Amino acid sequence: MxxxxxxxxxxxxxxxxxxxxxxxxxxxxxxxHFHSSNRGQWLRAAILGANNGLVSVASLxxxxxxxxxxxxxxxxxxxxxxxxxxxxxxxxxxxxxxxxLDIEATQMRRNSREDSKNLELPNPFQVAITSALTFVVGAxxxxxxxxxxxxxxxxxxxxxAVSSLAFLVFGGVGAxxxxxxxxxxxxxxxxxxxxAMAITSGLTMLIGSSH
Length: 211
Description:
This protein is mainly alpha-helical. The chain has helices at about 5-20, 30-65, 70-110, 115, 125-145, 150-180, 180-210. The chain is elongated. The chain has one domain (about 45-205). The chain starts with 5 loop residues before the first helix and ends with a helix.
């Protein structure tokens, strides 16, 4: 019957050719999944580190600036937050990713060698270094803005303005890299940053005025 109907035979061949795997390039869904996961680890760490550095240090400096008019006080507070925060995110990411690494390595040992030989594991050192460096980049934005502005009120406004612009930039970059809506991502990061700065400044002023 197949010989009497060459059209059906051609259709059958074209359908199977779409699913053929080139010789020497086996398609392993698990390997592709792990490869994407491994690549996404440092990307997630970079975006998270930059946003954390910007939000936490800007909020810290606004809290100090609510009570201290001295530019050195704000700059030192920002620098201390930069160092402490970068160490914190690096250690936190390292511990977290190393735990994930142990879990995935244990799972690989349970699988057969053929299923596991092409799998890629996350790199705790890469993620830790990435998060620490991007935290420093984000934190430097409000620190530099405060350090170069002498007037107290102008300094607070400059920190808020520069940090707001950085919120939008980081939100947009994260959305583009993650292939998510840019507008919603920018708005989410911007509003979250404003809330963090407002809460920190408000509570600091409240506690300072009570004493």
